Amino acid sequence: MNIAVKIEADAEREAVWTTPLEEINPAKTERFQNDTILPYFERLRQEDPVHFTAESEFGPYWSITRWEDIMTVDTNHEAFSSAEGIGLANREAMAEQEKVMGERRRGGAGFITMDEPDHGPRRKAVSPTLAPGNLAKMSPVVRERAGEILDSLPIGEEFDWVDKVSKELTAMTLATLFDFPFEQRRKLPWWSDMFMNLPGHGPVESWQQKGEAVFECFNAFQELWNQRVNAEPGIDLISMLAHNDATRDMDMNEYQGTVVLLIVGGNDTTRNTISGSIYALNKYPDQYDKLRADPRLVLPMVSETIRWQTPLAHMSRVATRDVEIGGKTIKKGDRVVMWYLSGNRDESVIENPNAFIIDRERPRQHMSFGFGIHRCVGNRVAEMQLTIIWEEILKRFPVITLVGEPVRNYSSFVHGFESMPVIIPARA
Ligand code: HEM
């Protein structure tokens, strides 16, 4: 952590229990970067679980922090709409983006920001590719490619785990799902970073550069569509979209939205789970020992990482009518944020929630994939690739050592790491 981030983190920790409740703006992005957000959620769960922030850089919004209340919102898609966006948008940044990129920012965000009846058929068009049956066909290729990536890692010298492993593996799986040209696979996490970051963060230097990346991505996927639509139907995602009744006539705007959704949905999330597992196993060495002693714990360890890390800190909705939750009235038109990161730490549902415990009784009991009609359609892909990578890691490297604090993302949405220094001391 650099000095400025550390000073701010110390001040934040002091302020957690003394800041007047009405002044708490949980989405303040710095707290996610300096890792001081969890105590704020603890306080809100105790003192004000349905919390209103009247003024912020994101406008006014409600924060839902307890497990049960989050479930109530997530499973009621009639009262809580996704159509006006599922993240909190920084208003100034959005105005700037509109000015600079208006022309090129076509496409929207795909079916994740649609309500019924539009959402269902589009989701159905991609779900067979992402279902266990199809994944079983792809998994040997993913395993072989994962092995190659791991075999190329340096031994005995420091490297960035995020860049060399987390991004590389997610790029590889997504390229396999899209049947995207394999040698260009690193473009996928690059575009995802370009979509998700504001200038000055991640690799994004300027709005201009961001705009060019969006344009390049849309052109590349337009070309893939043109190839697939004229070929025999295949098992990859683009071919499925080009041939499925519900999607083959969609306009290019909508196709671009779907592509953005799949690239972003499949990228940051899995990437940050891979990084999160290395971080957590190093912070909890007794759990790392348990995993080495019994590799059958890989799958529950993956689920525990998905809970503990919570790669997407929140999803948000807009109320379509007045709704009462926890004794407060959420008005029609209000923005509501479901903090999965807080729900996953709710001590009334998860025992000892701050601890990373890989052999919990119910490892899949977490809210990181959401609930209801938008529940992550890629959850099996995520579990498949994370399990494969860990099985392959354990065969090769008994220890992967974290050798410094990671740099965290500047985002209250994507909860993860920009870089993470590690050393692999030796091969098995
Ligand atoms: C650990 C990894 C992952 C996490 C934590 C995660 C999390 C989520 C969450 C929280 C949602 C929204 C739920 C809601 O609004 O209620 C979602 C939706 C979605 N995810 Fe994932 N995701 C992961 C991996 C993936 C992967 C690998 C893909 C694609 C290859 C993917 C594609 C999608 C899509 C397309 C949606 C929209 C579903 C809909 O609107 O019906 N995700 N994901």
Structure at a glance:
With 428 residues, this protein is α+β, with helices and mostly antiparallel strands. It is 49% helix and 9% strand. The chain starts with a helix and ends in a 5-residue tail after the last strand.
Overview of this protein structure:
- Helix content is 49%, strand content 9%.
- With 428 residues, it is α+β, with helices and mostly antiparallel strands.
- The strands form 4 sheets. A 5-stranded mixed β-sheet has the order 1-2-8-5-3.
- A hairpin with a 2-residue loop joins strand 6 (323-325) and strand 7 (328-330).
- Helix 5 crosses helix 10 (207-229).
- The radius of gyration is 21 Å and the shape is globular.
- Bound molecules: protoporphyrin IX containing FE.
Which kinds of small molecule does this entry bind, naming each only once? protoporphyrin IX containing FE
Q: Please give the order of strands in the largest beta sheet.
A: 1-2-8-5-3
Helical content class = 40-55%
The count of strands amounts to 12
CA-based gyration radius: 21 Å
Strand content: 5-15%
Derived structural class: alpha+beta
Name the helix and strand elements from N-terminus to C-terminus, one letter apiece: HHHEEHEHHHEHHHHHHHEEEEHHEEEE
Mean residue pLDDT = 92
Distance between the termini: 32 Å
The coarse silhouette is globular
Largest sheet entry: 5 strands, mixed
**Helix segment tally:** 16
Q: Regarding quaternary structure, how should these chains be classified?
A: single chain
Poorly predicted residue ranges: 103-107
